[in-house]
Specification:
Layout lengths: L2 H12 L6 H71 L6 H14 L7 E3 L5 E4 L15 H12 L3 E3 L13 E9 L5 E10 L1 H9 L7 E6 L4 E5 L6 H6 L5 E2 H8 L5 E10 L1 E11 L5 E8 H36 L1 H17 L12 H18 L2 E9 L3 H7 L1 H18 L5 E6 L2 E9 L2 H16 L2 E3 L2 E3 L3 E8 L6 H16 L10 E3 L9 H16 L2 E10 L5 E12 L2 E3 L1 H4 L5 H24 L5 E6 L1 H4 L4 H10 L9 E6 L8 H12 L3 E7 L16 E4 L1 H5 L8 H14 L2 E4 L5 H8 L5 E2 L10 H10 L10 H21 L12 H8 L7 H24 L2 H44 L3
Parallel strand pairs: 17-18, 20-22, 22-23, 23-24, 24-25, 25-26, 26-27
Antiparallel strand pairs: 1-2, 1-5, 3-4, 4-5, 6-7, 6-11, 8-9, 9-10, 10-11, 12-14, 12-17, 13-14, 15-16, 19-20, 19-27, 20-21
Helix pairs in contact: 2-3, 2-5, 2-8, 11-12, 12-13, 15-17, 17-19, 19-20, 25-26, 25-27, 25-28, 26-27, 27-28
């Protein structure tokens, strides 16, 4: 090694090392991000813990509220039952008739599955009757047991329900039990006897088993003296201990209850001794009118585990992975820095030399098209003209390459590009995306006529034969078009829509004039060949007269005469008559709009003829959401009405469906308001169906509601659904609109609806949809009958009238006239059909209970408290609903039995 070489090596290792600025930036960014992620992780852990603690406390409070509510409802219901039992025992003079008392107690225990036993105790402490003591064994006397006698003396002085003598631990069978009693007093205020029942909490246990409680959750009821009345689930291994000794709440739960003795809700955290000592988080809710508190708690270990699993575990794993990848990426960046620099320089050189045009045809390529496309969109908006975006594809280009070679295919593509450029205008653009795919941008169009001229030149240019290696070859093409701004979107979306339309054009079976072009529409992506064929057939059917109208009468309830007609479409296709639900879903926007115009024009023309014959009728026509959402809908209606000057706008009713948010859109609301302002009636069809939102009907510009026929058809088999129909009618009355009921198919429906304040009836019980020639005679001769009055529908409706009056009396302190049991129409109907109705005795008993509660409301309203009225009102609603359900099931069974008997008689009459 010579001296010169040694000096060069020495200079290399001793020269100062300079770090490029971007490397320093990378270094600072990496370590700054690392420290920031650690700080963010700490902040996230702190925040997630506090949020999780708040959410979990809220959830525990909600769970304790649900347990308290269910317990409250159970105790209130049992209090009502004990009160009723006390009345029955008092009427039966139970103290002097122990056998009669035992019979009533046994009946009550059998009817109430939640009680363990029922006991009747005299003021002296002597047990008069008990379902828990076998026959023949002596009945105890509480005076002989000092511990029980002291508590019993307090019971004798208590009015209302009392929780007494806490059961020490759960009942055998792992049930919660609370001993309840009620003292019956004489008119002079002296205690007559005490009715006591231990109440099992089967309902609460079933309710708790359905709750999505977290693992380890403890649920229980706590008395005011901090004894556990019930706990679920029972800790394993502690059942025998809880049976032998009372369980008391100590620690954090007891402190929280003592800290604020008047708070209805609360939470706590700390060591709790409930059977076993553990640190727990929990919440409690005190019951009203009962010395009980519902509590729910979870162990701290499971609380922390759930927080870790839900809030920390996956973010921590993600953080570790992110840090690992970041470190690896940092080292990789430093290693590949020089290589990236070289690649960046090469890429910049490529961008500067890359052409924006296709090498083969000289047309703009995809990148060049992007630049032109954005400019074309801007010019279109500025000039307020139309921009047609076309996607053109050759139908059989691959055989040209296969037969004549790729050179011939390239020559054909160049000739296609030349002809396309010659056919379009100077302001238009032709681009090639690759292969045999071309894009056309036709700018500055003033209308569809100008577009048709360009398309005609393009078709002529493509249809001329091509010279391919000395042979004349004819080819075909498919063109998909979309129009901006009718089709709003950016360049990519417009190209996708044009491409989608192009494939639809390729799928067409024939090549008639203009069939090589397909204009994009919104449902083109789901269009099938069957749908396309059906649409073409439908348009031809409209022109040929295969689509006709049927007219279903609407009868005015006040006069019993036909007041109007609803126009219904029928399509006679392939020797079948199709109703709209068979073909309407497959029609597109254009076909539906064409159908709407056809129905309106045909119906108004026929209505003019009927009015000339002296028939004063109105016409009801269905309107599709697509029509209502179109910009010129109202003008179209006005134009058609103008062609029939003899038809006043008030004689036209447009029925619209509430689908999605269509009726809240500005375009639809503007149409409806303009039409109503001109006198046209607007009806909302199928009110009460799956989607209809009853709360917003008051904000819609409508004159009429048509109650969905599904509510009416099943009333004969389900009379308990009568309350839903009545609520919809009351809604219409409150809105002050016309009410029409569809689905009137039986005489029972007619008799029922005559009792209600509705305007029009429509259904098969009046007439099926009529042909044009049968309408005039039917309108002149039809008179609505009275209907079948011997049905549970009419009787139940009249029965519900006074039930509603009783409820209004309880709420508003208004007087009402109580309907006696014998005078109630339901009583007459039940006795008339007693032989046919299964379980008629239970129905009569439940019906009698409803009337008893109604009479009590009348009495308590005069001298009782509001709390008593609300309690009786709740019982009235409960028993009334139960009676309706049982009546509906009995009617359904009665009809099924009758149908079975008819079938059996028919089969026996057939000769073997």
């Amino acid at each position: 090694m010579n001296l010169k070489t040694t000096q060069k090596i020495s200079a290399f290792f001793t020269r100062p090392i300079t770090i490029p600025p971007y490397r320093r930036t990378i270094f600072l960014f990496f370590y700054g991000t690392f420290v920031g992620m650690l700080a963010f992780s700490g902040w996230y852990a702190w925040l997630s813990w506090h949020r999780y603690e708040q959410n979990s406390q809220y959830r525990l409070t909600l769970e304790s509220d649900m347990v308290a509510a269910v317990t409250q409802k159970l105790l209130d219901g049992h209090a009502s039952g004990l009160r009723f039992l006390g009345v029955q025992l008092q009427r039966a003079d139970a103290l002097h008739h122990p056998r009669r008392a035992l019979t009533l107690l046994l009946d009550y225990q059998k009817a109430t599955s939640d009680i363990a036993s029922a006991n009747l105790i005299a003021p002296s402490g002597q047990v008069i009757a008990s379902t828990a003591i076998p026959a023949g064994k002596p009945l105890p006397n509480f005076r002989n047991n000092p511990a029980i006698w002291r508590g019993f003396q307090k019971v004798l002085q208590a009015h209302g329900m009392r929780v007494y003598h806490p059961l020490r631990g759960p009942l055998v069978g792992d049930h919660w039990v609370i001993r309840l009693s009620r003292t019956v007093f004489s008119p002079a205020g002296q205690p007559l006897f005490v009715v006591a029942t231990p109440l099992r909490f089967n309902g609460i246990e079933d309710f708790l088993s359905q709750l999505p409680l977290r693992k380890g959750t403890a649920v229980g009821l706590l008395r005011s003296d901090f004894y556990i009345e019930g706990r679920w689930p029972i800790p394993q291994g502690n059942l025998s201990k809880m049976l032998a000794h009372p369980v008391s709440a100590e620690g954090a739960l007891r402190q929280a209850l003592q800290r604020d003795p008047h708070a209805r809700h609360g939470t706590y955290a700390g060591v709790v001794a409930v059977g076993e000592s553990a640190y727990r988080f929990g919440a409690f809710t005190r019951l009203s009118r009962y010395p009980l508190t519902a509590f729910v708690s979870v162990p701290r270990a499971q609380w922390l585990a759930a927080w870790w699993r839900r809030q920390i575990q996956y973010p921590l794993v993600f953080l570790l992975i992110a840090l690992g990848f970041s470190l690896a990426a940092y080292r990789r960046i430093l290693f590949l820095d020089r290589r990236w620099e070289l690649q960046r320089q090469a890429f910049e050189q490529t961008l500067t030399t890359q052409a924006t045009h296709d090498v083969l045809t000289g047309l703009p390529n995809r990148d060049g098209l992007r630049l032109v496309f954005d400019q074309a969109l801007a010019r279109t908006e500025r000039q307020e003209r139309l921009l047609a975006v076309g996607f053109l594809d050759l139908d059989a280009f691959k055989p040209i390459n296969d037969i004549y070679g790729h050179d011939a295919g390239d020559d054909l593509l160049k000739e296609i590009a030349r002809r396309l450029q010659d056919a379009v205008r100077r302001t238009d653009t032709v681009a090639r995306l690759g292969g045999d795919e071309f894009v056309l941008l036709l700018e500055g169009l003033r209308g569809m006529d100008e577009l048709d001229q360009v398309l005609a030149r393009l078709q002529a240019a493509i249809e001329r034969p091509f010279n391919v290696k000395g042979k004349m070859v004819s080819i075909q093409a498919s063109l998909g078009l979309t129009l901006y701004p009718f089709d709003e979107g950016d360049a990519d979306l417009l190209l996708r829509h044009a491409d989608q339309a192009m494939y639809a054009a390729k799928a067409r079976p024939g090549r008639e004039d203009g069939s090589w072009v397909q204009l994009y529409h919104s449902d083109l992506g789901t269009l099938t060949m069957g749908d396309e064929t059906l649409r073409q057939d439908f348009l031809r059917a409209l022109a040929s007269g295969a689509v006709t109208l049927r007219y279903q009468p609407l009868v005015a309830l006040t006069t019993g005469l036909v007041a109007g007609l609803e126009a219904l479409t029928r399509w006679n296709r392939e020797d079948q008559e199709l109703s709209p639900e068979r073909f309407l879903p497959s029609l597109g926007v254009l076909e539906r709009q064409a159908l709407g115009r056809f129905v309106l024009q045909t119906g108004l023309r026929q209505l003019t003829q009927w009015r000339e014959m002296g028939l004063d009728l109105f016409l009801s026509v269905n309107v599709t959401p697509e029509e209502l959402d179109s910009p010129g809908f109202a003008d179209t209606i006005f134009g058609i009405l103008a062609a029939y000057p003899g038809i006043p706008p008030e004689s036209l009713v447009l029925e619209v469906l509430e689908i999605g948010e269509i009726l809240e859109q500005e375009v639809a609301l503007e149409h409806l308001q303009r039409l109503r302002g001109a006198g046209v009636k607007i009806a909302l069809d199928d009110v009460g169906s799956a989607y209809a939102s009853l709360l917003r009907l008051k904000n819609l510009p409508i004159d009429e509601i048509k109650i969905d026929q599904g509510f009416i058809r099943e009333l004969s088999n389900k009379p308990q659904d009568l309350i839903f129909v009545e609520s919809l009618i009351n809604l219409g009355l409150g809105m002050n609109v016309i009410i029409t009921v569809e689905g009137v198919e039986t005489e029972a429906h007619i008799a029922l609806l005559r009792e209600m304040e509705i305007d029009y009836l429509q259904g098969y019980a009046i007439a099926k949809p009529l042909e044009v020639g049968a309408v005039a005679d039917f309108v002149r001769t039809f008179v609505l009958g009275t209907g079948d009055t011997d049905t549970p529908l009419l009787a139940l409706y009249q029965h519900l009238g006074w039930v509603r009056a009783a409820a209004e009396s309880a709420m508003n302190h208004q007087g009402y006239e109580h309907t006696e049991l014998a005078a109630c129409p339901i009583t007459t109907w039940l006795h008339a059909h007693a032989s046919e109705l299964p379980g008629v005795e239970a129905l009569l008993a439940e019906h009698e209970t409803v009337h008893i509660l109604g009479r009590e409301i009348l009495q308590v309203r005069q001298s009782g408290t509001r709390e008593e009225l609300h309690r009786l009102l709740g019982q009235l609603h409960g028993h009334s609903h139960l009676f309706q359900e049982e009546l509906g099931q009995a009617v359904k069974t009665m009809r099924e039995d009758a149908e079975a008997m008819v079938k059996t008689a028919s089969s026996e009459s057939i000769p073997q």
